[in-house]
Structures are given as structure tokens and as C-alpha cells.
Amino acid sequence: MSERIEVLTMGRVGVDLYPAETDTHLEDVPTFHRFLGGSATNVAVAAARHGRSAAVITRTGEDPFGRYIHRALRSFGVDDRFVAPVPEIPTPVTFCEIFPPDDFPIYFYRYPTAPDLQIRATELDLDAIADADIFWVTGTGLCQEPSRSATMTALQARGSRGLTVLDLDYRPMFWSSAEEAHRYVREALPLVDVAVGNRDECEVAVGERDPERAAAALRDAGVGLAVVKQGPAGVLGVRDGEHVVVPPVPVEVVNGLGAGDAFGGALCHGLLAGWDLERILRFANAAGAYVAGQLACADAMPDTAQLDAMLEQVSCP
User: Fold this and answer.
1) What is the CATH number of the domain that holds 15?
2) Smallest Cα–Cα separation from 48: which of 73, 9, 78?
3) What is the sign of the dihedral through the CA atoms of 273, 277, 279 and 281?
4) Measured by CB atoms within 10 angstroms of the end CB, which terminus of the chain is less buried, N or C?
């Protein structure tokens, strides 16, 4: 793997077990497909698919699924040097049910904790974190100690170098309350350059659900670029001198899980390429739509040529 890291993510990893049959409840599913999963991990895979050097900081169990994760990361071209085992805590697995187009119940087996929440500040390579062109963290990383302190230490180590992105990534099952999540996300916002989230996540982070007010509140909190996902209404992006709303890309949804991570990896690629905001968001939207039309998450991440072809087809009358 290259020593230089363009996109370094930190957060969840696990094994996704998705039913081979759609429209079937878990208790009736006879066969599952295994995939690499976890939001921060998926973002790194997505960025690597666009030719970016990518790595992830995370933890696995000291078990067969942990070994699978290392193998899968390498197969996707993601640097696994910052992935280490945590004894006596199993690698988490995640099940989902698939009821297209908009019902995808998800079941996390990571209680009372998971290896990726055991990342400690003293274990971090702060030089690598500071030197990455983009450093991506998630709200889930703030939900529990020692991950919370490690995440804040990493954010503070960034200083003004590169771009730091916070994926608001609010999962209520990982928190005692929305109020607790609000407190810790608010502490992180002044330390990041970009914040990405849907309307629900913005409401938890800054108390605003309306996209325009949410973007303004994120900017007031110190964020340079606020990206608010609006579902069928598209995506809003606001930064100095640019205010953009782009429509969704039509797709027949197979599995909505992982679409946001594809969006994130494509967003990183566009930011590194120096594109204008409208082009970045259209590209990222296409990535999310592409993965929503597939069963898998990491395994389904598109490359740049696939998204360019998709956007060209959408733009044709």
C-alpha cells in the first residue's frame, strides 16, 4: 500500500449478512450473503473505487470474521495498517431485511460494545491522521468511550490541514438519547470543515430539520461546507459563494443501505478533484443511487467511469 493517504476514515466495521430473498422476514430467510460493512469502512472502499489511496482506522474481533475483514479490505485496495484486533469482543455482524423500495430494517449485533468503539486515543497514529488529505469520522464514533475521546483527539490533531469531514450518522440504538448525541456532536462540529447528514441527523446535531435552516446552523457552528440530504427533494449543499440543490437520480431501489456511504466516497473524490459544488453533489448523488440499486454495500461501490456513464444517461432526453 502507498504511504500517502488521500482519504482516511475512522469508525465502524463489521460483516453484513443480507438475505438472498427480498420481501422476507429474517425468521423465514434460509440463505444469506456475506459482505464487508460499516459506514466508515464503506466510505474508504468507495473512495478507493475512484482511484484514491484510502485507509480506515478501526478494530475487529480476534476471530475468523476479523480475518475476513482484513482480506476484504485488501481486495478493495484499502490500506488495513490501522486495523487491529480487540481480544474477547467479537467482530460485529449486521442483519437486514429488504422490503423495497423504502423499508430496510437493520439489526446490529454489537452490544454492549463493539471492537470499533474500543479505539483508544493512545493507539492513534496522529501524524498519519494529520497528514491525510481528507479525514472522515462519524457521529457513531462519539457515542461511547473510549472511541469518543479517540475521535475528539483525532479531530484536534488535524488542525487546519486538509479537509475534515463529520458524517452525522445518527443511529438512535447506539445512544441513550438524542440529547446526548446532540451534546457530543455539537462539540465536534467546530473541529470539522464538512458536515454531511439527512434531515433527521441535522435535527439531532443542530436542532433544525428544515434543510436551509439546518445548513445555516451547521455553518454557524463553524462548518465550511454543509451537505443536507433531503430524500426525494435531492441534496442541498452550502459553502462560501455556493448554494446548490441537486435532484435525486432515478433508480429502481433494491437495498437502500450503503447508499449514503457511496455518496460519501464520491463526495471525497469530488472534493479532492477540486470540482465546483454542483458537480460534486451530482456525482455523489449518482453514487448513492447506483448502490441503492444493488444488494450489497462495499461490494457494490461504483467506479468513476460507471458514474459518468450513469450521469450521461440521466442527462440524455
Assistant:
1) 3.40.1190.20
2) 78
3) positive
4) C
Distance CA 58, CA 43 (A): 13
The residue whose grid cell reads 468503539 is 117
Give CA–CA dist 24/15, Å, rounded: 20
- Structural domain that includes position 276: 7-315
Section 16-42 average pLDDT: 96
pLDDT digits (tens, 9 = 90+) for 47-94: 999 999 999 999 999 999 999 999 999 999 999 999 999 999 999 999
Domain count of the chain?
Answer: 1
- Starting at the earlier edge strand, list the strands of the sheet with 32-37: 32-37, 14-19, 93-96, 106-109
Does pTM top 0.85 for this prediction? yes
Measured CA to CA in angstroms, residue 188 lies from 37, 184, 227 at distances of 24, 7, 16
